[in-house]
Amino acid sequence: MKIKSDRHYFSVYGRAILPLLIFITQSCSLIKDIEKPQAADLFYQLLLGSGANRIGVVSSDLGPSGRFSVMHPEGVAVPFFTSIHSDAMARYFNGRVFIVNRLGRDGIQVLDPQSAYLTVSEYSTGNASNPHDIVVTANGKGYISLYGKNNILVVQPESGAVIGSVSLAAYSDPDGYPEVSGLHAEGNRVFAAVQRLDRNDPFSTWPPVAGYPSLLVEIDAGSDTIVAAHAMPFSNPFSKLRRVDLFGQPHLVMACPSWLGYNFRIDGAVIAFNLNTNSFTTLYRETAAGGDILDVVIKNDSVGYASILFQDFSTAIQRFNPTTGARTGDLFFAPNWGGYVAGMLLTDDGRLYLGDSSYTEPGISIYDTNAGDLKITPLPVPIGLRPTDLVYIP
């Protein structure tokens, strides 16, 4: 398997843990995909999988195949899957699951939770467009970030009919691309994380560009025009943009590792953007974490959890205090030969779901953050392939 630097494989984590992927392909056989579900599997899918209050799991064989499956919040996996791309992420809006199939498939796949997660539509975002995220606004418009282009596509989210486009060419770095990744819709505003990385650097792998700070671009969803570009205090917004009520105000929280992976430096942080004041706050620095911060979820003003990649490519999940910025504990650690975490989800009832991509027993681990981070699952709940993303389906 050829490893590509432009994140073809393994969702957003591919660039950060490229050496781990190389180790896997050299030392382990790829997990083989299973056959298309038969009638009995579809029965279980309809009986157990359909409906509300499910955890959606995106998983991959790190090769040509990917799956979307679901599990009950208690940790019971439903024995079925929907075939998707090997490099994908999932979002839920308005009764539909939207699978963002990235470079190599370049499109959106729409699943119906009430009909056994069957694919109800699929549409292309353009050859080599490399879609990275999708959001749906309150008025029903869909916005798709395109990592391989310099615009955001505006569509009817279920059919894919193109409504328009928002150009971000003015925010490109010298390689000609702005590297637009995460999106968030807030009322009549759409926020886009603009990384501004140098994909042509001959000495480093997609590093930040000096003099081109990462941006949180604000778009008016009524007119599809850019109204502001907020410069970030740290580079490379790498995680999803997660909305959290923090310090009594609505915020967008994100992990910004700046230089990471082969480019390892202790220079990033978890930051929060106040949606009322349009200002940033630093919550957790890499100087406290000791490694690159790849992902983050926040429970409240005093408890957050961060996914860490260390210089030797070992990984950990750390607990921290968003108010003080102090590291307060460790939930998970994997040596560089033992796996990694890809996908974090914190539900309103305090359960923390981690995509545990162990080399021998990949699956979903569940912790109760209301009971001292008690691990509910002695072993990861098996889902067949290696998890790469998680989504809550209400």
UniProtKB/TrEMBL annotation:
Alphabetized InterPro entries for the sequence: WD40/YVTN_repeat-like_dom_sf
Gene3D superfamilies cross-referenced by the UniProt entry: YVTN repeat-like/Quinoprotein amine dehydrogenase (2.130.10.10)
Protein name stated in the entry: Lipoprotein
Species whose genome carries this gene: Leptonema illini
